Amino acid sequence: MHLLRRISWYHTMIEMPNWKFMLILFSFYIIINFIFAIVYYAIGIQHLDGVNASGNFLTQFGQAYFFSAQTFTTVGYGHISPTGFLTSALSAAEALIGLLSFAIATGLFFGRFSKPTAFLKFSHNALISPYGDKKGLMIRLVPFKNTNLTDAKAKITLGMSVEENGTMTNKFYNLELELDKINALSLSWTLVHPITENSPLYNFTEEDFRKTHGEILVFITTFDDMFSNTVAARTSYTFDEIIYGAKFKTMYNRSEDGSRTILHLDKLNQYETT
């Protein structure tokens, strides 16, 4: 399939970083006005009434460029106006393109600001920690904005290379969680997969994690009252990002007067070895 048909430009523009999105908008605005200014100049600067025809090339081209910008934005200060059929037709076409372009840009702005987003942060590392008389795979996440998240659900999938009949194959396993859903997500949530006899990680040592090629995929869905919609977040940890024999430090405490719980976001990634 052709590259242009494989890419959803709307989703690309919605998902890209803010700086890149603004750079594309400004670049498009500058370039398209530059192209129209070249065409106006090629038709003849004398067909732009109000342009100083005695000026040098840069002065005349600059006036054609700013006339294009005024036409593209439909501002039309009136200092310069088109004369002749070609110039008038071109300025009419440019005004239409400008209106359509600003409508598309406005839609993209609205889409970016109104897009439901799960404001969740995940710990930088997954840990293999003591869990009762066994061990458990633990991953911590926390909401980091003043949102009201309810009905949160978690799913963890393990993908790793295993040897079968002398050949390496990729296998995927759904990891059972101690708790896979909670009613409200207002504090931190530590996802715990107990490593029991039924776990694919059973009897895995620290050396096994270093030697095996694998990845932990984490999927979170939750309902956000602000957006009145279900939002999702995901992350992953390669086996290189799993710390063996450690546990997370507590990242919240009660206030001095005991009236509220204080959540310390800067402690999300803090752990201690056991």
Protein traits:
single chain; 274 residues; alpha+beta; 6 helices
Characterize the structure shown.
- The two termini are 53 Å apart.
- The radius of gyration is 29 Å and the shape is elongated.
- The mean pLDDT is 91.
- 32% of the residues lie in helices and 35% in strands.
- It is of the alpha+beta class.
- Strands 3, 4, 5, 9 and 12 form a 5-stranded mixed β-sheet that branches. Strands 6, 7, 8, 10 and 11 form a 5-stranded antiparallel β-sheet that branches. The protein has a two-stranded antiparallel ribbon with strand order 1-2.
Mean pLDDT: 91
Broad shape: elongated
Q: Approximately how much helix is present in the residues?
A: 25-40%
What ranges have pLDDT less than 50 throughout 5 or more consecutive residues? none
Ends distance: 53 Å
SSE arrangement, N to C: HHHEHEHEEEEEEEHEEEEEEE
Strand content: 35-45%
Label the structural class.
Answer: alpha+beta
Summarize the main sheet: 5 strands, mixed
Over the alpha carbons, how many angstroms does the gyration radius reach? 29 Å
**Number of H/I helices:** 6
The total beta strand count reads 16
